[in-house]
């Protein structure tokens, strides 16, 4: 008898449970998809209103993670509801559960007379029912979590791929973000929203795939192709603005070095004038050079002579760490030891980026030399012949140590003779050392 | 060890290994130099990373060690040596070496760090220590080469010739390391050699060290040293003679020979 009832009960109950489960999953999935579609089209301002340290001041997008938290919240709420309806003990607040009602009735019956049903089996049935409900919730939650997880994964993967894409594209084009003011290479530029808050990591991420919403409500593009190019970039360390071309043109840092009063500032001024750039008395000049085949954002550092003459200054002069080439200005009249100047520079370069860069040796103040003693006296105006003549001139004036050391350390060395005063003095174009270092043709 | 830069609120030192993408633990640019963890002195990177070799310059007091060091570094760095070895350049590593070179007479055991470069060859970093002859023997264990300067005017044979009183004998040479036994102040005993002596011809010029000339000098000086007496010649030694005054004469020979032993300089066999 008992076995037959069990078999019949199983045969009837199993399809019923399955149908019930299917209905529950389909409806809940439909609701979930609806929520997801709504979530995709609209940013829900669920996240932190106060800026989180280490995070940019922007809202988090719902589908990048918070949705999962809601799925689990939802499941927990469902289990709690089923529990309070079925099994909660009578002394708990809220509406009475089935079990509480049964328990109350039984305690009444105990006074009134015998029970019709054994209360223990009814309570067991409630427990079984609760277990079934929990199982159903678990199944539905699993389906939800799977779907939401897929969506979250998709959003995050898209953001990650886009982020990688932009980083790789910039790297392939040789574009780095360097702050010329604090002379450091940055991971990426920072961007200031119109509200004044700084976004340090304006890239696709969990705060927005294509755009993000600043805490002030403004929408900011996260990709260069999406309009980030037009935002005002700044240095995340010192907040000084970066040139507009910093995000699209590779930067080259060229320190102009030499002893005190070697003529560095005069040379820089003459070179900038030749390159049609206004000269201001500062130690940093950023200019855009080249044509559409080879465009470079050039940062010329006119380092004061005492920086190079004191190691304790040189070791904090970060510009050498970024140098893509160097101009060494040699005053032919100076009594100071040019070799020691070069030694200190080479040592500092070796500590940071190595000496695998080209070096332009510029003999300055050529107008002050007697014409017969001029390095280019009787030399054809061909760049390499002139470089050889300038080298020979230094050799003849006892600077073989300088020449050999330059040749042995740097990848390429070329010699120039420049006069910053007196236009009719034979010599090289003051811009030619800079153009040569950049690999650009002379003017 | 490295130290935090000027932009860093906490100016501390930290091990080089703690460097993250060239930044200190606080994310700032560190100072562009390394310091010794024990004495906080600057350690040039080239010295720390290249396989540097210690060369001990030993000799009795007034043997001419400082004078020889000054002259060899001067010849190397002013490029005078470049007439012997074309394209060679020398770089005094670090401010302490430059200060040491500027004042070689100051009594100190600080080494003189130099890096020698030639086109197409790996740089050689040498630490030149000027030490008294009776320095602790364990120092010889770490040395890649020893230049022992011998003042000829202290040797019994020379003193007899010049009619000087003999000095009390110095303690015997007990170290078993290959040594460049070098007679200094050659100009003082110049007249003792006849015109055919290999010491009378200047060192040969060329890209490589000329082994035959070195051997000629070795045999000649060895013979003279045995005749003069007073010097123990250890096994594996090579003899040289030089004068560090008046522009120098054969000054670089011991160093060039040591460089060939490190494989840093080629050897030309046969007479050039
Ligand atoms: N005759 C002549 N004098 C020059 C030339 N270039 C520079 N001078 C002079 O050299 C001196 C130093 O020139 P600066 O350009 O200021 O030298 P600097 O290298 O910038 O010096 P610091 O910044 O102090 O290290 C000035 O008196 C210039 O007039 C030149 O081409 N010809
Ligand atoms: N004539 C001559 N004198 C030398 C030579 N080298 C060194 N001296 C002299 O020897 C003395 C001691 O030299 P120094 O280098 O201070 O010896 P150190 O004590 O070994 O460092 C000085 O007075 C030098 O002038 C040399 O080659 N020829
Ligand atoms: Mg200046
Ligand atoms: Mg001395
Ligand atoms: Zn804003
Ligand atoms: Zn900055
Ligand atoms: Zn720090
Ligand atoms: Zn130390």
TrEMBL record, chain A:
Keyword Lyase: no
Bilayer-spanning residue ranges: 6-37, 126-155
Stated name of the protein: GTPase domain-containing protein
Coiled coil: none
SUPFAM superfamilies, sorted: P-loop containing nucleoside triphosphate hydrolases (SSF52540)
Domain (Double-GTPase) ranges: 273-421
Pfam assignment, any one: DO-GTPase2
Record keyword Membrane present: yes
Keyword line: Membrane, Transmembrane, Transmembrane helix
Provenance organism: Lentzea indica
Top-level lineage group: Bacteria
């Amino acid at each position: 008898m008992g076995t037959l009832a069990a078999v019949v009960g199983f045969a009837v109950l199993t399809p019923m449970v399955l149908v019930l489960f299917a209905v529950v999953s389909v409806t809940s999935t439909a609701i979930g998809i609806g929520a997801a579609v709504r979530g995709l089209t609209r940013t829900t301002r669920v996240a932190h209103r106060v800026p989180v340290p280490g995070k940019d001041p922007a809202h988090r997008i719902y589908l990048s993670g918070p949705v999962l938290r809601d799925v689990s919240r939802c499941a927990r709420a469902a289990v709690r509801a089923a529990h309070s309806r079925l099994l909660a003990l009578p002394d708990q607040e809220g509406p009475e559960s089935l079990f509480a009602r049964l328990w109350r009735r039984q305690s009444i019956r105990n006074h009134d007379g015998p029970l019709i049903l054994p209360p223990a089996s009814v309570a067991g049935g409630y427990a079984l029912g609760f277990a079934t409900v929990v199982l159903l919730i678990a199944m539905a939650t699993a389906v939800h979590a799977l779907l939401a997880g897929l969506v979250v994964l998709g959003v995050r993967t898209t953001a990650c791929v886009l982020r990688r894409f932009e980083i790789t594209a910039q790297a392939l084009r040789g574009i780095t973000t360097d702050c010329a003011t604090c002379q450091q290479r940055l991971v990426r530029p920072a961007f200031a929203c119109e509200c004044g808050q700084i976004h340090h990591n304006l890239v696709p991420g969990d705060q927005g795939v294509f755009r993000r919403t600043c805490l002030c409500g403004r929408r900011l593009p996260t990709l260069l192709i999406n309009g980030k190019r037009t935002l005002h970039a700044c240095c995340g360390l010192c907040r000084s603005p970066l040139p507009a071309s910093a995000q699209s043109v590779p930067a080259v840092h060229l320190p102009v070095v030499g002893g005190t009063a070697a003529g560095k500032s005069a040379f820089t001024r003459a070179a900038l004038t030749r390159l049609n750039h206004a000269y201001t008395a500062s130690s940093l000049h950023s200019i855009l050079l080249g044509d559409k085949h080879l465009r470079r954002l050039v940062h010329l550092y006119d380092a004061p002579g005492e920086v190079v003459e004191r190691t304790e200054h040189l070791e904090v002069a970060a510009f050498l760490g970024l140098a893509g080439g160097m101009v060494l200005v040699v005053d032919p009249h100076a009594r100071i030891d040019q070799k020691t100047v070069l030694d200190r520079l080479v040592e500092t370069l070796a500590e940071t980026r190595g000496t695998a860069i080209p070096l332009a040796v510029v003999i300055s103040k050529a107008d002050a030399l007697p014409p017969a003693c001029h390095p280019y006296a009787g030399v054809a105006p061909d760049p390499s012949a002139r470089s050889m003549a300038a080298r020979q001139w230094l050799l003849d004036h006892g600077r073989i140590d300088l020449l050999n050391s330059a040749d042995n350390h740097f990848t390429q060395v070329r010699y120039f003779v420049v006069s910053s005063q007196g236009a009719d003095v034979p010599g090289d174009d003051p811009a030619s050392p800079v153009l040569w270092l950049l690999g650009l043709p002379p003017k | 060890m490295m130290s935090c830069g000027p932009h860093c609120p906490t100016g501390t030192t930290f091990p080089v290994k703690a460097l993250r993408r060239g930044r200190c633990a606080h994310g700032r640019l560190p100072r562009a130099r390394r310091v010794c963890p024990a004495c906080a002195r600057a350690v040039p990177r080239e010295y720390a990373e290249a396989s540097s070799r210690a060369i001990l310059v030993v000799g009795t007091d007034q043997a001419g060690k400082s004078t020889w060091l000054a002259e060899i570094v001067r010849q190397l760095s002013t490029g005078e040596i470049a007439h012997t070895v074309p394209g060679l350049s020398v770089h005094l590593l670090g401010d302490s070496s430059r200060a040491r070179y500027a004042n070689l007479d100051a009594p100190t055991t600080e080494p003189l760090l130099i890096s020698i470069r030639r086109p197409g060859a790996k740089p050689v970093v040498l630490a030149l220590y000027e030490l008294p002859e009776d320095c602790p023997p364990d120092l010889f264990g770490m040395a890649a080469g020893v230049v022992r300067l011998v003042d000829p005017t202290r040797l019994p044979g020379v003193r007899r010739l010049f009619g000087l009183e003999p000095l009390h004998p110095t303690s015997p040479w007990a170290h078993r390391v290959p040594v460049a036994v070098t007679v200094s102040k050659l100009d003082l005993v110049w007249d003792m050699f006849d015109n055919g002596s290999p010491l009378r011809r200047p060192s040969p010029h060329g890209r490589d060290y000329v082994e035959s000339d070195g051997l000629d000098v070795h045999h000649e000086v060895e013979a003279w040293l045995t005749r003069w007496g007073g010097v123990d010649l250890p096994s594996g030694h090579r003899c040289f003679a030089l004068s560090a005054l008046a522009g120098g004469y054969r000054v670089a020979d011991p160093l060039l020979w040591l460089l060939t032993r490190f494989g840093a300089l080629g050897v030309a066999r046969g007479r050039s």
